User: Fold this.
Amino acid sequence: MLKLSRLADYAIVILVKLGEQAGVVTSPCLAAETGVPEPTVAKVLKVLAGDGFVLSQRGAKGGYRLARPLADISVASVITAVDGKIALTACVDGGGCDNGVTCSLCGSWDTINQAIRTTLEGISLESMRQSQTIRPPRPYSNGVASTVQELRGGA
Assistant:
């Protein structure tokens, strides 16, 4: 089964949520809006800032914002930033084969890997945002703010 890492999934969710906001957004606010634990949001934002996807603003009114529009960010670029090179097997793109000389498929995976990479490069986060499914809000427990309005100071 092909599956994204949890951090790559979170990174895409966080970036799309940032793209829906005006101005800067704090890590706790993003955690509340996405359901991703705040320490994980902070970790993902640090990686995304390091790769130029988000800009951070320090201070009392600090937070994060996108460095470029969602339409200019591909799913492949986010996965690569978080997980490294997209590769289905160890031998893709000339990498070392785990099976050694007994494997007759060396290089055969390159075509499949390139097709997947090209497809992911052609999908922007804006298209992900536009096709998202609206889900009911998750209930919060343990005294955490239940709405974004509460986090932003309104009730």
In short: Confidence is low (pLDDT under 50) at residues 141-150. Residues 1 and 88 are 10 Å apart (CA to CA). The longest helix spans residues 6-19. DSSP finds seven helices and two strands in the chain.
